[in-house]
């Protein structure tokens, strides 16, 4: 096994390419909760996480599976741009209800392409009232948020889900 000064092993999550510890440390220094957005092969996961020495504490969480309770169509994608927007919107409403009014965006190792699904979730958080530092140029436009590029029924589903989140 590797021993000695020149053969020191890195952390396992760094070796596997799962964590950028330098970026994570910069986010943790502020002491503000992190709005974590991850898009998997099947769904989106949005969480509000707070750092603790024994591990991160999840303050609020919304996944693509929980969108069904807000009236999201069963056959619709749970990782599309509109689904990410609704998940971010729901996360922000639950975070504000729990007493958290600001966060910073944590996208992990995902590419930061303007208008992407991660930034659709960010726009949902901002539209719901959560204060997240961002630039307006990275957010997707209204047509993509409403899902008119997919189907007209998705636009009505987005509005219905937002109303259900407001009422919950």
UniProtKB/TrEMBL annotation:
GO terms for cellular component: cytosolic large ribosomal subunit. Keywords: Ribonucleoprotein, Ribosomal protein, RNA-binding, rRNA-binding. It holds the Pfam family Ribosomal_L5e. Signal peptide: none annotated. It comes from the Archaea. One of its GO terms (molecular function) is 5S rRNA binding. GO terms for biological process: ribosomal large subunit assembly; translation. Belongs to the universal ribosomal protein uL18 family. This is one of the proteins that bind and probably mediate the attachment of the 5S RNA into the large ribosomal subunit, where it forms part of the central protuberance. PANTHER family: LARGE RIBOSOMAL SUBUNIT PROTEIN UL18, RIBOSOMAL PROTEIN L5-RELATED. Part of the 50S ribosomal subunit. Contacts the 5S and 23S rRNAs. This is Large ribosomal subunit protein uL18. It comes from uncultured marine group II euryarchaeote DeepAnt-15E7. The lineage of its organism: Archaea, Methanobacteriati, Thermoplasmatota, Candidatus Poseidoniia, Candidatus Poseidoniales. The gene is rpl18.
């Amino acid at each position: 096994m590797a021993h000695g000064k020149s053969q020191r092993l890195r952390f396992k999550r760094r070796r596997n390419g799962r964590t950028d510890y330098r970026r994570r440390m910069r986010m943790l220094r502020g002491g503000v909760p992190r709005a974590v957005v991850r898009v998997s092969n099947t769904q989106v996961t949005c969480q509000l996480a707070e750092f603790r020495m024994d591990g991160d504490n999840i303050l609020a969480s919304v996944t693509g599976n929980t969108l069904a309770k807000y009236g999201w169509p069963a056959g619709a994608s749970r990782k599309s741009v509109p689904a990410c927007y609704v998940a971010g919107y729901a996360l922000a409403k639950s975070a504000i209800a729990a007493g958290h009014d600001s966060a910073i965006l944590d996208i992990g190792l995902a590419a930061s392409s303007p208008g992407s699904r991660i930034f659709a979730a960010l726009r949902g958080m901002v539209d719901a009232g959560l204060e997240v530092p961002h630039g307006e140029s990275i957010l997707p436009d209204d047509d993509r948020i409403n899902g008119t590029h997919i189907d007209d029924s998705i636009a009505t589903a987005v509005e219905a889900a937002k109303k259900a989140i407001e009422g919950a």
